[in-house]
Amino acid sequence: MKKGVIEKNIINGPYDDVNHYVKIHFSLLKEDFEEPLRASVMFYKKQKALMSETLKNIDIKVYKGVTVSFNKSKKKSFYYVNFLNPFQFSGVDWNTSKNFMHGSLVLLSNDNFNKLYLAIVEDRYALEKGKSWIRVNFLIESPPCSKRNIFVMLECKNFFEPYYQVLTALLNLSVKNFPMYKYIISSETSKKLPAYVNRETVYKICGHNIQICNPNDWPVAEKLRLNDSQLQAIQTALTSEFSLIQGPPGTGKTYTCLMIIDILLNNINFCKMPHPNPILIVCFKNHALDQILGSLLKKNVKVLRIVPGIKPLLKAINERWHSLERLQKEINKYNSLMSHLDERSGIVSFAVLSKGLTNLSQNQQTWLRNNFINWLFCDISSQTDINKVIELCSQTREDIKAGKLSVVQNPPVSKNGSTFEILQICDTFENDSVMKQLSYSSIFILSLNDLEITMNVLRESIYFKCRNKLNVDFISDVENELKLFNDCRIVYLTLKERINTRASNVLLIKNNKLDDLNSLNVIQRWRLYQYWVKELRRYYQRRANSFQREYEDDKVMFDELGNVKKAIKIERFGAQVIGATTTSAARCQHLLTLLKPKIGNLEKAAELLEAHAVVSLSKHCQHVILIGDHQQLRPSTASYRLETDFNLGVSLFERMIKNGLHAPMLTVQHRMRPEISALITPSIYSKLDNHATVCNLPDVMGIVKNVYFIDHNNFENEMDVSKMNIHECDLLLNLCKYLLQQGYDASEITILATYLAQKTYMLSARERLGLPTEITITSVDNFQGEENRIILLSLVRCNEDNKVGFLSVENRICVALSRAKEGLYVAGNMPSLIANSKVWAQINQKETIDPVDECTKELQKLALLDYTEGDSTGGESENFDLPKCNEPCGIKLKCGHTCKKKCHVNEDPLHDNYVCHEICGLKNITCPLKHKCKKECYQQCGECVHPCKKLLSCGHSVKRECHISVKDIEQNYKCLEICNKKLRCGHCCIDLCSEPCGLCKEMVIMNGCGHKILVKCGAPLSACNHSCDKLLQCGHKCKGKCSNQCDNGIYLFSCYCKELCKATLGCGHRCTGTCGESHLCKQKCRFKCRHGKCMARCSDPCMAKCGVKCARKCSHFRCKRKCWEQCDTKCLKDCPLLLPCGHPCQGYCGYKCPPVCTQCDK
User: Fold this and answer.
1) Which one of 347, 908, 980, 1145 is most buried, by most CB atoms within 10 A?
2) pLDDT tens by residue, 482-519
3) Distances, alpha carbon 221 to alpha carbons 256, 265, 626, 627, 628, in Å
4) Which of these CATH numbers, 3.90.420.10, 1.10.760.10, 3.40.630.10, 3.40.50.300, describes 183-302+580-642?
């Protein structure tokens, strides 16, 4: 860390070349980080014996007693810094702490920093979880890893990550990839069109087609929802390759920026493609970037926010997700177990109970583990086999789980059967008509639900065996099952009676012996059991709470990391806008090069160090727009010497203005009332007009004027490197308290301090005075870009030498005086300010500022009205008596109503003792329907008594008080509405809803046959005596009764038809029988040969067979078979016959002659 040679930043004129530019800014930025660190290390080396608390005002934090360890995995190696005293972090709030952030620089040494080891912090996750180590990555050389080597570690307060990323990005710049060379290096100020724009380019803006390079083609500002200065700024931005826009406080810089982006997105082709060249937006702070990107997201613009370290974060997202899933399962498990315990529906097994036992010895627990159930049911007869009951219930439960067994409702019992007496025994147990769901909880060894199901299974089995008498020994089987049924019933009734016994620890701790358990009576045993269950539930609750806390912590982390994952998804759909801080843009410089953003927009550019601005742009940029205000805060540097002597505090925005580049200024402010804006016009800004809306802002309540300078002569207090003024602190805090009494909300008041020590003291004093934490107390520098209704400003400086430090700097004066919208109250010493600054001299001449004005004196007294701290460095406070006021108070109370008493500013000004008798009117938080409470406001809302309709389980509704549950209503109420439930037949039940649905009473046409016989739908069917007359399959009409099943019934045959058949049978004869009879031919058989005829009936097979030799023969061949047998061979000689035409037949002798001659075709 040796001091290098550095050159001044060139703010007027060009640089020699890119190397010259990089050399200057690299050395300045590097020295800006190293200079305070170097001074702090040298100070520590000289003061080695100093305690850590004496080092709190230097730029390092000291941690003594650390070791370094090394861990190597398959993918990566890690170094860990272990703290020997982890209790030093016990009070750290890691949600807000900046210690050991990712990217922080730490220095380790074990020889008083003669030799240094530099490391970058990778993560502090272990410290956040209460462990004693952080993970680091050593830059150059790693130290020896041993528990014997104990180091001192210094952490730099200046965050190293931005410096490291920007310095690395600077080294990557060259002539080939340097953005906007002719403006940044050569300092050219001539106006040139962007590369993608020509003189004829037309944009569509707010419905108007405008040739943007023609000033005369632009409509008036009002048609584009702009003022004249905003219109001029947008014209310049759209038509200049490198443009600046200056925006004083409240003039709408962000609105103008969003308008420009909207115009570009809607008109430029490369912004509208599926995978566009995105517009790049860069800010120094995350807060400013989030405001712009949030507004774009509301307009459905696809936005990608670049975040450094995407891969590690995605891994972290995955780890957090699995952790959340695991924790949620554990929480659900313990909540489910507690729910089962609260139902009191069974006996918890002793193996589960033992987790929460605290009043039993080891011997007692061992004995109970084997005898728990028998010990608890000690009064049940020995004939009742309770272990068999438990075994049977367990087996039933397992069979139902496996789907081997199903449970039905009680089967009907016929009173005429011989087994009625046996089944009647089972009916002495009252079963519910609807079976409860099977309990799968593993915590119960025996439950009421399991016993009910088991008894139903036994009853069904007994019924089945009695009806079917499966074997000769069925009576013996039934008797065994009846005994089991009776045992189950006894256990069930006993358990149901004692399951709700009051819990009590009946064991004496002093005489806690094994005999004590057996000496307890039945009631005492059940009370002790319920006490153990209660202890078990507390154990489950503790476990659930522990997992819940861990889940909430991981959920916060997961939500933060989830934003990165969403951004990556947006990139895949084609981001139109890329947003990044300067650090992220520098780190992801290679990614920006690949994405090729052609348009770069640097918001709040006057706050960016020039090196930060330049590395945020890529070589593909064709259009750069810088929006900011160099007359407000400059870039923040760690070294005041470099800021002032080497021009490091001059931004690129300010440098280009100094070199003559035109920067149109927004001149209409929409924030401050005219009295406030007059403080900075023309003392800082030559012109700043007030919009009409700020002229009608309400006056500050309870104070005559809206702008005051409270002058005082109370000296400041020296606090090492910072300063504070106790008088101003107490003055402004009590003024804040008074404003709260006037009805202002705490979030509407902001207290600004110009020094860090003043801010710290005010934060502690705010708690001492009991002021709400919602009141923002911060430094002026941190409130840049913010605003509030009322600002209380503490200038701090007041001393004998009239020194005011940076209060004479115009930029800080501008920011400090331009944050208020409605009221600004400044405490300070005006003579000191006037002596050191011309700006303060001009401000003092304003009509709104009169330090000796009577109202100012009264305000100072009023602010000190409740001051109870006695004296301060500036003197004692005066007593101030307010005149009595007879006006109604009218202050808005916390409940939302207004105070009805007369003004009581001297008595109970905060309304701590006021009792509000107005009707509450708030939504009752205990009411799920959020009805408004009708009690008086001071009373507890309690249970909601608003009458409302309650939907019963039957589907009907009844009016009852809101807090009464449906379950409670149905216990004592019988629904008198008509049931209207659909029966199986499809009709609606017309009985009362509270009564069981009986038989259907609707009158219907019986059987749907079409004959008008009306009967009740649920009554047994009557026989229809009408003729059927339906067509049968045979085609004849049915002659039977309609009640006989024919065409529409189960049977569909023609055998019932008595008509004559007359059908032609297969043999050729006509059927002579009826249609319903069998169709057998009764005529004589037609079969005959030359030797005789068949004498049998046609339907019978021919029994007589002709035994004469077959008469078939020709001149070549004779058949040798009998007449009734089929000839198996035919003559294949030429046919000797002549055809009718006279030609010889060309066929075979054994076959018929062909009908056509092959010779003459006749």
Assistant:
1) 347
2) 888 888 888 888 888 888 887 777 765 444 454 577 78
3) 13, 20, 22, 20, 22
4) 3.40.50.300
